[in-house]
Amino acid sequence: MENQIDKTAIITGDVKLGKNNKILPYTVLTGPLEIGDDNTIGPNVVIGSPGQDTRNRYYDSAHCAIKIGNRNIIREFTAIQKPCYENITQLADDIYIMQSVHIPHDAIIESHSVITPMVALGGIVRILEGANLAVGVSVHQRVVIGQYSIAAMGASVMKNIKPFSRYIPGKAISVNSFAIEKYGFQEQTDEIHKYVLESIEPKSEKLFNLIGKYLNYCKLTGKGEY
């Protein structure tokens, strides 16, 4: 199917669109930008502005790329910014980004993540698969949000969040049981509980590889975890 692009949208530079995308009113797309299929973007979304970086406020972003996958929903007043330090700002597939979200330079957002209204992410963050950031969460730069974890409404996230955990400021880390059921990890429930609550390394290959990926990202942050 053809893309549906509202006549008020502004598209400049090298922008590659797949098929069946909806670009809603007053949305601005600036290349280099690659967008896959079946995405809904807008209204009043801005994708492709330079990253907001205090070290280099006027850096040349002309060749800095953003890549967005398939079947994502990016709601009104969201901003997605070009990389400053790495090769790309990237969103994968089936992500739901709600109203007024700030996606910063060099961010990597993996599939099935949910980012709710007025979340603000710092630069070079990693939001891993199936993570959920509740309304008004603020995430410090370089933080890793682990797979299938959730950060509570209004939280200021200064450290990495373990996969499958619930981070609620002022409370002990707990298990995100909802994600275990939603994403089909029931057989690994005991291992997940031991990992989240006791830091016991899981033995099943499925969890071992998942957590290994999270830990590899964490090594690059210089931050601890909750």
Give an overview of the whole structure.
It is built from three helices and 25 strands. The protein is of the alpha/beta class and 226 residues long. The chain has a single domain, classed as 3 Solenoid (UDP N-Acetylglucosamine Acyltransferase, domain 1). It has a ten-stranded mixed sheet with strand order 1-4-7-10-13-16-19-22-24-25, with helices on one face. Strands 3-6-9-12-15-18-21 form a seven-stranded parallel sheet, covered by helices on one side.
Please name the defining characteristics of this protein:
226 residues; UDP N-Acetylglucosamine Acyltransferase, domain 1; 10-stranded mixed β-sheet; 14% helix; globular; alpha/beta; 7-stranded parallel β-sheet
Helix content: 10-25%
The radius of gyration is 18 Å
Just name the CATH architecture. 3 Solenoid
Count the E strands: 25
Q: Might you state the CATH topology name?
A: UDP N-Acetylglucosamine Acyltransferase, domain 1
Total domain count? 1
Number of helices: 3
Biggest sheet statistics: 10 strands, mixed
Termini separation: 45 Å
Shape: globular
Protein structure class = alpha/beta
**How much of the polypeptide forms β-strand, as a percent range?**
25-35%
Determine the oligomeric state from the structure. single chain
Given this structure, which CATH class is correct? Mainly Beta
Low-confidence spans: none
CATH superfamily: Hexapeptide repeat proteins
- The strands making up the biggest β-sheet line up spatially as 1-4-7-10-13-16-19-22-24-25
Mean pLDDT across all amino acids: 97
What is the H/E string? EEEEEEEEEEEEEEEEEEEEEEEEEHHH
